[in-house]
């Protein structure tokens, strides 16, 4: 039998302690997500509503099909920076007229929807997702353009936004812009470079330069409507393809545009009737990962609560046992899973992973990486045994694999193990973290200890006494810094993942991602892995 048996004692003190720790982290996460939902705050939200306008997420809710999910991406972007959480932009994947689309919406309650450096990074990540998965892009635009005080960080790299729109169109991926208010300066190129543009009577304002700039540049007197209003663009310039009377009408017209795209998925969706849920309750995921990540846990307990029927065909179960690999289905989609078991990756695990990744590429099966690793093993025995070349073999396989990759950081994701398990730099189609996750070059205690050893050796080499009291203070400071910089909210703020998710939502999130992935062809590498050092 390949149905996973669970040894989890859900009523035991260990499970209950882990669950309590996870719930505490989820409470803190909810507070941070609330900041993103608040946008610019009550004052600016009230002002926006007084103008008869919908909020960004309300526009999205009307756009997507009734009762269909919207997978919001990077909601904590800009966390920990001087900019508001969320980066004044909402991005995500939603179904419009039965078509999965990448949707972006400016939040005009935050500095009029102006783009700051984190807005740019978040928008570029959204375009990357759309391109890789061939998802039509719908831009709900209301922005005053670049946040001018930070223009030096936006202007030069910001051109990539417009490049992306043209490349999406050239690749046959439809782009739709719905303009709800201002779309000025560089922002005017969003509707200008989209395949389809909807503008709203007396609301949409699209121009390269507004009346003050035109006055300064040419001396010409002008007004918003004649310079860039919806009526002018619909009747005179031709920039507007569709003319709407209000926001609801604009959203209705956008939905009709998508309905007429004739955009088809490369792979049909599985029949939901045939999809068997896991044998175990997702609620139990809260008590699996220990609060102290030094304590190992069995990732098969996680897999059993994610995959269809808890059915998992393990590959090489007796070899390289610190890495569980095997085949399953998730919401009907085939997946190959690599999950860290005891944290450390040895030579056997690395070779096993490389072979498994090659097999997935031969079979055109997407890969799911479940992270809980402290990295590759160190020490004289392991160096002499070839850990470098074997770790390089695994990283080579991940780097040159062509099937889509999904990554979920459950616990630790340290050092080169983060790379071998397809961290952000290795272009996973989607990467999410649990609130329990931590990621850094190494653990805080190890990093502080290394610095201490180096400093002590340096003092000895110079014949100087070593200040143990100062050393203790340095170690405490470094540990605190690395701990804070390895937490999921910090890393999500930097857009090193696509969101920090509730473990109970993992199966749903992965199912939505797998569905989006199958809009594009899923094809593996048939070679081209480079030289494996044997």
Automatic annotation (TrEMBL):
<dbReference type="InterPro" id="IPR011763">
    <property type="entry name" value="COA_CT_C"/>
</dbReference>
<dbReference type="Pfam" id="PF01039">
    <property type="entry name" value="Carboxyl_trans"/>
</dbReference>
<dbReference type="InterPro" id="IPR045190">
    <property type="entry name" value="MCCB/AccD1-like"/>
</dbReference>
<protein>
    <submittedName>
        <fullName>Acetyl-CoA carboxylase carboxyltransferase subunit</fullName>
    </submittedName>
</protein>
<dbReference type="InterPro" id="IPR011762">
    <property type="entry name" value="COA_CT_N"/>
</dbReference>
<dbReference type="InterPro" id="IPR029045">
    <property type="entry name" value="ClpP/crotonase-like_dom_sf"/>
</dbReference>
<feature type="domain" description="CoA carboxyltransferase N-terminal">
    <location>
        <begin position="22"/>
        <end position="273"/>
    </location>
</feature>
<feature type="domain" description="CoA carboxyltransferase C-terminal">
    <location>
        <begin position="277"/>
        <end position="534"/>
    </location>
</feature>
<dbReference type="InterPro" id="IPR034733">
    <property type="entry name" value="AcCoA_carboxyl_beta"/>
</dbReference>
């Amino acid at each position: 039998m390949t149905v996973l048996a669970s040894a989890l004692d859900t009523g035991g003190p260990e499970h209950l302690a882990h669950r309590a720790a996870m719930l505490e982290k989820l409470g803190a996460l909810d507070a941070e997500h609330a900041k993103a939902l608040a946008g610019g705050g009550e004052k600016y939200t009230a002002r926006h509503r007084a103008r008869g306008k919908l909020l960004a997420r309300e526009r999205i809710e009307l756009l997507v099909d009734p009762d269909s999910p919207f997978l919001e991406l990077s909601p904590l972007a800009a966390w920990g920076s001087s900019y508001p959480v969320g980066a004044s932009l909402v991005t995500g994947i939603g179904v419009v007229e039965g078509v999965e689309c990448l949707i972006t919406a400016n939040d005009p309650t935050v500095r009029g929807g102006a783009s700051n450096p984190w807005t740019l990074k978040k928008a570029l990540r959204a375009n990357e997702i759309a391109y890789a998965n061939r998802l039509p892009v719908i831009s709900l635009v209301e922005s005053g353009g670049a946040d001018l005080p930070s223009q030096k960080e936006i202007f030069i790299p910001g051109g990539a936004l417009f490049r992306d729109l043209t490349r999406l169109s050239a690749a046959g991926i439809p782009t739709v812009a719905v303009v709800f208010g201002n779309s000025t300066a560089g922002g005017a190129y969003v509707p200008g470079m989209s395949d389809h543009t909807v503008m709203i009577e007396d609301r949409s304002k699209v121009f390269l330069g507004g009346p003050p700039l035109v006055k300064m540049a040419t001396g010409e007197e002008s007004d918003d409507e004649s310079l860039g209003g919806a009526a002018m663009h619909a009747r005179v310039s031709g920039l507007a393809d569709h003319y709407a009377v209000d926001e609801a009408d604009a959203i209705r017209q956008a939905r009709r545009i998508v309905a007429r795209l004739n955009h088809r998925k490369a792979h049909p969706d599985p029949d939901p009737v045939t999809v068997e849920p896991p044998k175990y309750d997702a609620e139990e995921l809260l008590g699996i990962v220990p609060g102290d990540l030094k304590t190992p846990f069995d990732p098969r307990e996680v897999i059993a609560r994610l995959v269809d029927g808890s059915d998992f065909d393990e590959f090489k179960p007796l070899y390289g046992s610190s890495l569980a690999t095997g085949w399953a289905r998730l919401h009907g989609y085939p997946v190959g899973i690599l999950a860290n078991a005891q944290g450390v990756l040895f030579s056997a695990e690395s070779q096993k992973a490389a072979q498994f990744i090659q097999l997935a590429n031969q079979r055109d099966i997407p890969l799911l990486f479940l992270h809980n690793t402290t990295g590759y093993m160190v020490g004289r025995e392991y160096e002499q045994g070839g850990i470098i070349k074997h770790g390089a073999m695994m990283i080579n396989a991940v780097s040159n694999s062509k099937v889509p990759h999904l990554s979920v950081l459950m616990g630790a994701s340290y050092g080169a193990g983060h790379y071998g398990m397809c961290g952000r730099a290795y272009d996973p189609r989607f990467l999410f973290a649990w609130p329990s996750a931590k990621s850094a070059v190494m653990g805080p205690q190890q990093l502080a200890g290394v610095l201490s050893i180096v400093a002590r050796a340096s003092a000895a080499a110079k014949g100087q006494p070593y200040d143990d009291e100062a050393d203790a203070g340095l170690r405490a400071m470094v540990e605190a810094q690395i701990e804070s910089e390895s937490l999921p909210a910090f890393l999500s703020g930097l857009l090193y993942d696509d969101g920090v998710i509730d473990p109970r939502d993992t199966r749903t999130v992965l199912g939505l991602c797998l569905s989006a992935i199958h809009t594009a062809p899923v094809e593996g590498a048939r070679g081209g892995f480079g030289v494996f050092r044997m």
